[in-house]
Amino acid sequence: MNSVICFIGAGNMAKSLIGGLIASGYNKEKIIAADPSSEQCAALTQALGIQCYEDNQHAIEQSDIVVLAVKPQVLQTVCNSIQNSIQAAPKLIISVAAGIRTQDMDRWLGGNVAIVRAMPNTPSLVQTGAAGLFANALVSAEQKEQAEHILRAAGLTIWVDQEAQLDIVTALSGSGPAYYFLFMEAMEQAAIKMGLDAQTAHLLTMQTALGSAKMVMESKQNCVTLRENVTSPNGTTEQAINSFEYSNIRQTVEKAMNAAQKRAIEIGNELGGHS
Questions:
Q1: What are phi and psi for residue 173, nearest 5 degrees?
Q2: Which DSSP state fits 195?
Q3: In the chain, fewer beta carbons within 10 Å around the N or the C end?
């Protein structure tokens, strides 16, 4: 892949994707960015050694692929401002803005635009992210490969067939890191209350989370089997698991994910409309 990639927005997600691309060997001279903040531009250039402009149009004119790495609330304004440039020289558009549907972006960009919508998550910042991807009907097989290459630089990528499934991806992997952080926070606090010092509780919680995820990733067994293997009859783990089940942990998780999915749909409606 030898395309010039332009990132509109120089925030954390752009930095994580650009950093991942460079780490994977992508030519940094083929990566440019644009951000209205001169401070953000300077910081990005200093950190990663790529060219960053304050003018979106100037950056887009030099590129083959445009990654919209801006907040959902400003996406319509950004799309409207670059519409003429995109219509004059069609490019692949990749959006990482949560909730905004491809049909709304297509309308804002003037229509007939190849768009891939991605839902990455914050572990992308340390190249262990998970991203759901959806392509509209105008995206070619080659462009799908290009989009996957860019997002894969920051972690795992999964394609979905229906755009509505991205709202589920949002509730699962998009918001999911915060669920684990909350659970880890609760474990730490419980251990401290029970008598461990804060540093010990923190280190043991972090390593336990890392080790558990690594076991799931590397084992041929599923989560159910791995849980059963460590849950000895009449043992300590069984008592904890029984307590969780008695507190309806599964229903609590399902309710939380339904709430996240509902909010993702609402954001799409509020910011994009029902067109």
A1: -90, -30
A2: T
A3: C
- How many whole angstroms from its chain centre is CA 19? 15
Asked if residue 192 and residue 108 are part of one domain, the reply reads: no
Residue with tokens 């300077």: 42
**E strand spans, 147-241:** 155-159
- d(CA 222, CA 224) in angstroms, rounded, equals 6
pTM over 0.70: yes
Q: What angle do CA 162, 168, 169 make, to 5 degrees?
A: 90
Q: What is the DSSP letter of 29?
A: G
Specify the pairing of strand 31-34 against strand 5-8: parallel
Q: Which DSSP state fits 171?
A: I
Residue 34 CA to residue 9 CA, distance in Å, equals 6
Expressed in angstroms, the distance from the first to the final Cα of the chain is 35
Strands laid side by side in the 31-34 sheet = 51-53, 31-34, 5-8, 65-68, 92-95, 115-119, 129-135, 155-159
User: Which CATH number goes with the domain that contains 219?
Assistant: 1.10.3730.10
| pLDDT tens string 153-188 | 999 999 999 999 999 999 999 999 999 999 999 999
